[in-house]
Amino acid sequence: MKFFVDTAEIDAIKELHALGMVDGVTTNPSLIAKSGRDILEVTKEICDLVDGPVSAEVVALDADTMLAEGRKLAKIADNIAVKVPLTWAGLQTCKTLSEEGTMVNVTLCFSANQALLAAKAGATFISPFIGRLDDINIDGLELIEDIRTIYDNYGFETQILAASIRSANHMSDCAKIGADVATAPPNVIKGMANHVLTDKGLAGFMADVEKAGIKIL
Ligand code: G3P
User: Which helix or strand (DSSP H or E) is residue 186 part of?
Assistant: First the structure.
């Protein structure tokens, strides 16, 4: 499973990138607003850092303006994936941009039917939001499973990009189901390293290091 980082914070991307943990980056208008940076400028900086796909989201609601925005975003770098919402206008934009050879990430997906439409419209990525489904007591992971089954049934090449990931468990659960990509905030990715038994075991080793005066350097 590929790891995308769901952030527009350059330092956080750099830290994970140095460990080979960044196969791509996803942003959205809320993350851009949080960064306080200009969308074109910060997106370009991310594209220069990372080789994999960098999702940048359109902000218009109608297809014509979305298309113009998508074309402008696509010019930032070769690794841009234009992110469009899963609306009818978004699907129209997806179809055109995909035919032009631009990667498209269709976002705000909450149902298998929506995912089926995105694949038919030629999306490179479909982004089902599992955390936001969990928030309203609908099993987000079940949606990933359903989309996996549907895409595999028909050989759709659209990649399942599990989004709205809130915990380390979501990451391993998505990997078990066979999501192609999971995008998560930096703290969730770093949190995957944590285990209470690791902490406990290390504390025991350190106590013995102290007791025996073990030194390596
Ligand atoms: O990039 C979209 C998505 O990952 C948002 O997550 O936590 O705001 O639902 P969240």
Answer: helix 186-191
Angle between helices 88-99 and 63-74 (to 10 degrees): 40
83 included as an active-site residue: yes
pLDDT of res. 112? 98
List the catalytic residue out of 44, 72, 83, 215: 83
| 168-187 pLDDT tens trace | 999 999 999 999 999 999 99
Asked if residue 201 belongs to a domain, the reply is no
Residue among 78, 74, 146 nearest 109 (CA)? 146
Atom in ligand 1 nearest the alpha carbon of residue 55: 1
Q: How far apart are CA 172 and CA 167, in angstroms?
A: 9
Q: Which atom of ligand 1 is nearest to the CA of 107?
A: 2
187 in a structural domain: yes
For the chain, the domain total comes to 1
In this structure, what CATH number is given to the domain that contains residue 130? 3.20.20.70
Structural domain span for residue 34? 2-192
Cβ(163) to ligand 1 under 6 A? yes
- Indicate whether 213 belongs to any domain: no
* Phi, psi (deg, nearest 5) at residue 20: 75, 25
CA of 108 to the centre of ligand 1 (A): 9
- Would 215 be classed as within a structural domain? no
pLDDT per residue as tens digits for the range 56-78: 999 999 999 999 999 999 999 99
Q: How far is the CA of 88 from the centre of ligand 1 (A)?
A: 21
pTM exceeds cut of 0.90? yes
What confidence score (pLDDT) does residue 139 get? 97
